[in-house]
Design a protein that fits this description.
The complex is a heterotrimer of chains A (about 300), B (about 290) and C (about 450).
Chain A (H helix, E strand, L loop, with lengths): L2 H25 L4 E5 L2 H11 L3 E5 L14 H8 L3 E4 L7 H9 L5 E3 L26 H18 L4 H28 L6 E6 L3 H7 L2 E6 L9 H14 L3 E5 L5 H12 L5 E6 L14 H16 L1
Parallel strand pairs in A: 1-2, 1-3, 3-4, 5-6, 7-8
Helix pairs in contact in A: 2-5, 2-6, 5-6, 6-10
Chain B lengths: L1 H26 L5 H20 L4 H25 L4 H22 L8 H4 L11 E4 L2 E5 H29 L1 H6 L4 H23 L1 H18 L3 H26 L3 H26 L13
Antiparallel strand pairs in B: 1-2
Helix pairs in contact in B: 1-6, 1-8, 1-9, 1-10, 2-3, 2-4, 2-8, 2-9, 3-4, 3-8, 6-8, 8-9, 9-10, 9-11, 10-11
Chain C lengths: L2 H10 L3 H26 L5 H20 L4 H25 L4 H23 L23 H20 L1 H9 L1 H6 L4 H23 L1 H18 L3 H25 L5 H19 L5 H30 L6 E2 H7 L4 H13 L3 E3 L3 E4 L1 H25 L3 H11 L5 H11 L24
Antiparallel strand pairs in C: 1-3, 2-3
Helix pairs in contact in C: 2-6, 2-9, 2-10, 2-11, 3-4, 3-5, 3-9, 3-10, 4-5, 4-9, 6-9, 9-10, 10-11, 10-12, 11-12, 13-15, 13-16, 16-17, 16-18
Classes of the chains: A alpha/beta (about 300), B mainly alpha (about 290), C mainly alpha (about 450).
């Protein structure tokens, strides 16, 4: 084989690849079709992708992953997706397992699984982790950085746009993160205690220096007993906490029974309000979006404990 | 589009398997077993998890199947030995096992996050995406093979043991008088019922199982005059319900499994209405009393 | 706090949560024990489970119509769905003549599926926060408070009053509906009233105590009571008492140590009561039944030996002493087994002599005479009147001799005209106390 022939072959290949690239750039003018499971994730994908992505969340902003059921149309939505983004860490239950296996066939991205295990909170001995990563805004940003790389890998031609928009989105996350840090630090030390029915706020507590106390364990199939009520009541009474909170995905009566017991024992404590845990507010309201939802939680906590 | 086709095939298989076992259970008056097993498997899931230390799907499946079998067997034992009525024995067993499961979870609160909805119950609409592979070749959805196996086992059981099962579902006393071992065949039925139930929970979710055990079998029972007619009728009714349900789900953009259940319900209503109409129009002609004790 | 301290602290009942949960669970246990007995007798033991699933479309509908998760609204929705479900079960069993368990499974799955259909539709609507909608209705036992006590108290009191006032009518409807209809009792009205009370009790129980506890509370005490009695009034009392006891036990256990859920421990307590009754219930319990069977088997064994000895005496005289081998010659039995039976007969004073060489005592002779008399009369009757061959008549009489009483024997004797010999030509003895036993 002569040197001449090799260079000729190379030039043909080069020409072909440039042509192919040109054709692709034209064919891929349409925005990237992304399907997400939760609305929090959809918020972030939109934040990074802007006009260049077409985002569809399977679970609307007010929908809790526990309540969500796959509908007929969701099959087509999943099928038509060029990228599927989900939370992982068992938030989506069996659907998460299916999505994991779908990775063989089409691009899927699990935000939680992309994070280093050391940054996650373990909940059991079998390597399961708490899925509520979006309540630690720095961690959420790290998850976003991995997502950004994934989006760029899929659409290199939009890389600069993605990077610019991501920088702005991450800046908002950083700003809110700093505000939460500052606001929580401004609370009296004995009030930095978040009492809820079952803890969705472990990451929040770890990141912003609040102790988190729940009536029952992590499993939603579990129940609490009278001794657990007594334990939480003693903590609340001994710390002089001003308020406790309802979680949006747990029946309010669990916390209400704690309040009633405290009141009857002569240690009245206020109900601080409702915190969003696994879902957000209705679409079209500030709480229906990620930042609004986090701010609502922060505001509720501050109002109640200050 | 091939996804919808797979869903159709899988739903037809799940419908057929549950309609077959459901027909036998309906005649034995213990069709609530499906619902009971869906609750009692919690105990099996927790046990499997605590013993194996993993949430491996195969482990979960094994634990669920064993406890499903155990609860079916215990129910039968309570009924035969303790002379407790069928529905009460089913209820006592499943509430007890479920409570034990919750106690185990609560006791290991820091280590266990098990919820049947998350680790066991599958979703019909997602089955086409969960495929099996040999090497790199895609050989179709896991649920398809699973349900195909169960359906084949059920057909095998019916082919081999049609006579004893026929006698048993007619009446246990009758079966015993023919020299058929009631305990043995009740155990075989319990094994198959729990295997079908757990395999179907895993593939298509709990609600479809409870419904497909009860609805098509009762639809067939409206007209059937023999066990054979009832079995065939139930499978046909389940197939019609699956087709109608898929259409309903597509029209409403709703849960496919739920839509199939609703379609099966409509089918039963239709059959009952038709029967009432026929009876009225031939009331003078003849009356066809069906054996039925209140 | 040690377990003992906790136990004392519990019974001081000065912890408000403890007081509420204990009282509340006792009330709930009483009312569901009562209503559950009716449900179990109607073969609807799993109604609690069915209504829990059937509540879902009520919850989603209430949410859809009023856009709120206000507990009262949701509760009313669930109650409405529960009544509809009850109506459909009634329609399916009464009109369409479906089996009870089929109707329950059908209504359960159909209603639940309707709820899911609505959920998949709701999740695309920009409505208020839907979080926890599927579990919203389902409380936990430990979360009972004083506000719930009034509701529970009212329901329990209402149910008890209603049952007390209408007891005879309800019993009639429950056990003989046709008869009640024939008597002109407004059966439908009573049934509707009962159904409304039942649905109320179940739905209120559900949102306070959860699905599985409610299912167990409705059926396990009633099933236990069924094992202990056949009559409605005692059954109601037993079921209510067990419900109350389990409530107190569950509250107690869940106070002693952390991570002991109240509701599931109540279910465990109920199940243990059930297991105890299953084993020990005087009439239906497994153990008494096994004991009765054993004593019957022993009596048959003993009576067979007595009869064998009687026949041996007949061949010679009542004073002859017989060995175990002589007996086994007539009645093939294992040596060890025969020895055990003979020892029992000795203890009961049926035999004289030693276990090796023996004869019937006076009491033994009397009993053996009675048995032989029954045996031979029955043989004769079967041959004379039914034309059975002597061999077949003998085998039939082998079984009948253990259950024939003197009145029957006397009737047969009269009927046959006081025969003196049986088909084998052996004498039929007189009644042992009427005539002197063969003198010694």
């Amino acid at each position: 084989m002569t040197k001449n022939r090799v260079s000729r072959l190379l030039s043909v290949l080069l020409a072909l690849t440039s042509l192919w690239g040109f054709a692709c750039a034209h064919a891929e003018q349409a925005p990237l079709r992304v399907v997400t499971t939760t609305a929090m994730i959809a918020d972030m994908v939109t934040g990074i992708g802007g006009e260049r992505v077409e985002v569809r969340a399977l679970m609307g902003s007010g929908v809790d992953p526990h309540v969500y059921r796959v509908s007929f149309g969701d099959i087509q939505r999943l099928n038509g997706a060029e990228l599927i983004v989900y939370n992982g860490l068992h938030l989506e239950g069996r659907m998460g397992q299916v999505l994991e296996r779908m990775a063989r066939k089409r691009p899927v991205h699990a935000l939680g699984e992309a994070l280093p295990a050391a940054r996650l909170i373990a909940v059991d001995d079998a390597g399961a982790h708490d899925p509520h990563i979006w309540f630690d805004l720095r961690l959420w940003r790290e998850a976003g950085e991995a997502l950004l790389e994934r989006l760029i890998a899929l659409r290199p031609e939009d890389a600069s746009l993605f990077r610019t928009r991501a920088a702005a989105y991450f800046a908002r996350l950083d700003a809110l993160d700093a505000r939460i840090r500052q606001d929580i630090a401004s609370l009296p030390e004995n009030q930095r205690l978040l009492v809820t029915a079952h803890d969705a706020f472990a990451y929040f507590g770890r990141a912003y220096g609040m102790e988190v106390v729940g009536l029952q364990g992590i499993s939603t199939a579990s129940e609490f007993g009278l001794a657990d009520l007594r334990r939480v009541r003693q903590i609340v009474a001994s710390r002089g906490v001003k308020a406790v909170f309802i979680e949006s995905s747990v029946p309010p009566r669990f916390i209400e029974s704690l309040l009633a017991g405290l009141e009857s024992a002569g240690q009245p404590v206020r109900l601080g309000g409702e915190l969003f845990s696994d879902s957000m507010g209705p679409a079209g309201t500030p709480e229906g979006q990620y930042f609004g939802m986090v701010e609502h939680n922060l505001h509720t906590i501050l109002e109640a404990l200050q | 589009m091939s996804e919808i086709l797979w869903i159709l095939v899988i739903a037809l298989l799940a419908g057929a398997a549950n309609a077959l076992i459901g027909s036998l259970l309906v005649l034995q008056r213990r069709v609530m077993l499906g619902d009971a097993i869906s609750h009692s498997v919690l105990f099996g899931l927790v046990l499997a998890y605590l013993l194996s230390g993993s949430r491996d799907p195969l482990m979960m499946f094994g634990g669920a199947a064993l406890i499903g079998l155990f609860s079916a067997w215990l129910t039968d034992l309570l009924h035969r030995l303790g002379r407790v009525q069928h529905d009460a024995s089913i209820g006592v067993v499943f509430t007890f096992l479920f409570a034990l499961g919750v106690i185990l979870i609560a006791g290991h609160a820091d280590q266990v996050d098990i919820d049947p909805d998350c680790v066991l119950h599958g979703e019909l609409a997602l089955t086409p995406f969960d495929t099996l592979h040999i090497g790199d070749t895609d050989i179709g959805p896991r649920a398809f093979w699973q349900l195909l196996g169960v359906t084949a086992l059920l057909l095998l059981m019916l082919a081999v043991a049609y006579r004893p099962l026929h006698a048993l579902t007619f009446s246990a006393v009758h079966a015993a008088s023919l020299g058929i071992s009631v305990a043995l065949w009740n155990t075989v039925l319990a094994v198959m019922a729990s295997l079908t139930a757990v395999a179907s929970f895993d593939a298509v979710g709990a609600i479809l199982v409870v419904a497909m055990m009860a609805l098509p079998a009762n639809t067939a029972l409206v007209f059937a005059r023999s066990l054979q007619q009832m079995l065939i009728g139930a499978v046909l009714a389940s197939a019609l319900a699956v087709l109608g349900g898929l259409a309903l789900a597509a029209w409403l953009d709703a849960s496919i499994a739920a839509a199939i259940v609703v379609a099966a319900g409509l089918l039963l209503a239709l059959a009952l209405a038709l029967k009432a109409f026929l009876r009225r129009s031939s009331a003078a002609h003849r009356e066809t009393p069906r054996s039925q004790s209140a | 706090m040690s377990a003992w301290d906790a136990l004392f602290a519990f019974w001081r009942l000065d912890d408000p949560n403890v007081l509420w949960v204990t009282l509340g669970m006792a009330l709930l246990g009483a009312s569901s024990g009562l209503i559950g007995t009716f449900a179990v007798l109607e073969k609807r033991a799993l109604l609690g489970d069915v209504l829990a699933h059937a509540a879902l479309p009520g919850v989603t509908m209430a949410f859809f119509l009023f856009h709120t998760r206000e507990p009262l609204v949701i509760l009313l929705g669930a109650a409405a769905a529960g009544l509809l479900a009850w109506g459909l079960i009634d329609l399916l069993t009464r009109r369409a003549r479906l089996r009870q368990d089929s109707a329950l499974a059908i209504v359960l799955s159909l209603f639940f599926a309707l709820g899911i259909l609505q959920l998949t539709w709701l999740q695309r609507q920009p409505l208020a926060n839907q979080a926890g909608l599927d579990k919203f209705l389902f409380g936990q036992a430990a979360s009972l408070t004083d506000a719930d006590l009034y509701l529970l108290g009212t329901v329990a009191l209402g149910l008890i009053l209603l049952t007390a006032l209408l007891f005879d009518r309800l019993r009639l409807i429950l056990f003989d509906r046709q008869h009640a209809l024939a008597l002109g009792v407004p059966v439908r009205r009573y049934e509707l009233l009962l159904a409304a009370m039942l649905v109320c009790a179940v739905v209120i129980g559900l949102q306070l105590a959860g699905v599985v506890l409610m299912a167990a509370l409705l059926l396990t005490p009633a099933a236990t009571a069924r094992l202990l009695s056949d009559r409605l009034r005692p059954m109601l009392f037993i079921a209510m008492t067990l419900g109350v006891l389990a409530g107190v036990t569950g509250a107690n256990v869940s106070y002693l140590a952390p991570r002991m859920p109240t509701g599931p421990w109540m279910v465990v307590a109920l199940s243990l009561f059930f297991i105890a009754a299953l084993l020990l219930a005087p009439q239906r319990g497994l153990l008494p039944r096994a004991l009765r069977q054993r004593s019957l088997r022993r009596r048959v064994e003993e009576e067979n030996i007595l009869r064998t000895l009687f026949k041996l005496h007949e061949e010679t005289s009542v004073d002859t002493l017989w060995s175990q081998d002589d007996i086994r010659h007539h009645r093939p039995l294992g040596a060890a087994r025969l020895n055990r039976i003979l020892q029992r007969l000795h203890r009961e004073g049926m035999l004289d002599g030693t276990p090796e060489r023996m004869r019937l005592s006076a009491a033994g002779l009397k009993r053996a005479t009675t048995l032989t008399r029954g045996h031979r009369l029955w043989e004769t009757y079967l041959e004379n009147r039914l034309g059975l061959s002597p061999e077949r008549a003998h085998f039939a009489a082998e079984a009948a001799e253990h259950v024939l009483d003197e009145a029957t024997c006397a009737t047969i004797e009269r009927e046959l005209g006081r025969p003196s010999t049986d088909p084998h030509g052996r004498p039929i003895p007189e009644r042992p106390d009427a005539a002197e036993a063969p003198s010694r």
